[in-house]
Amino acid sequence: AQKITQTQPGMFVQEKEAVTLDCTYDTSDPSYGLFWYKQPSSGEMIFLIYQGSYDQQNATEGRYSLNFQKARKSANLVISASQLGDSAMYFCAMREGPNTGKLIFGQGTTLQVKP
Amino acid sequence: EAQVTQNPRYLITVTGKKLTVTCSQNMNHEYMSWYRQDPGLGLRQIYYSMNVEVTDKGDVPEGYKVSRKEKRNFPLILESPSPNQTSLYFCASSLSGQLYGYTFGSGTRLTVV
After folding, report:
1. What does the pLDDT profile of chain A (115 residues) look like in tens digits?
2. What are the distances in angstroms from CA B31 to CA A1, A30, A95, B57?
3. Fewest CB within a 10 Å sphere: which of A20, A78, A82, A85?
4. Residues ≥6 apart with Cβ < 8 Å to B29
C-alpha cells in the first residue's frame, strides 16, 4: 500500500541558511508523482514543487529543489537561503498514476526560521 | 482567477444537525476531493470524484457523504455530525493523472459541540 513518511515533526533553521526536509515513500506503482506543499499559519495549502517518477533530473523551483533518490524512495525538499516567510508546515504527498484521485500526505514538518 | 471556493470558512454546529459544506472550482478540473486535517495526522482524504456522478472513498469516508452532479461542484455532507468530526476541512481539485497535484480551497474549520 502507498505510504508517505515525514520523520521530522519540527525543524529550526537560521535565516539565509539551507534546510532539508525529509520525505520517504512507499509504492508498488512504477508511475507516480511526488509533491510538496506549504501551509503557513494562515492555513492555506500552497503547492511548491513536483517530481515525476520517470523524471531524470531533480525538480527545482526558485529556492526550492527536490532531492529525488528513487532507489531509496526518498524525495527530500531543500530550501536554500531560508527566509522568515518560510516558517510554516510542509507536507510531502504522492499520487499514483495514471487514473486515480488518491493523493496521500505525510504527517508534515513544522519549519521555523530564526532571524 | 483560477480557484477552489469552499464555504463557509468557519462553522460551529451541534451534534446530529445535518450540514453541508459547499465547494466549487472554475478550472474545469476532472477530479475533486475532500480532505480533513487533524494535528499530528496530516491531511487525510475523505472522498474523491473522477467526474460527474463518479465518486470513490478515500481513507476516512465514515460519517460523510458527497455528490457530484455538476463538474464544478462537489459538496460535502455530514448527515449527523459528531464531535470527532471537528476538524479543518479542505476541498481540492485537479486535472487527471499523476503529473498533477490538487489545488486547494481555503479550508473550513468545523466545530461540532
Report:
1. 789 999 999 999 999 999 999 999 999 999 999 999 999 999 999 999 999 999 999 999 999 999 999 999 999 999 999 999 999 999 999 998 777 888 999 999 999 999 9
2. 22, 22, 13, 13
3. A85
4. B93, B94, B95, B103
> Chain A residue with minimal CA distance to B49?
A101
Would an 8 Å CB–CB cutoff place B38 in contact with chain A?
no
d(CA A15, CA A81): 7
Number of H helices, E strands in chain B: 0, 11
At A21, which helix (H) or strand (E)? strand A19-21
Instruction: Provide the grid cell at A82.
Output: 531560508
Q: Among A83, A84, A80, A90, which Cα is nearest to A19's?
A: A80
* Chain B residues in contact with A31 (beta carbon < 8 A): 98
Do β-strands B10-13 and B108-112 pair in parallel, antiparallel, or remain unpaired?
A: parallel
A102/B contact by beta carbon, under 8 A: yes
Residues sharing a CB contact under 8 Å with residue B64, sequence separation 6 or more, in sequence order: B34, B46, B47, B76, B77, B78
The band of B65, judged by pLDDT with boundaries at 50, 70 and 90, is very high
- Alpha helices, H only, chain B: none
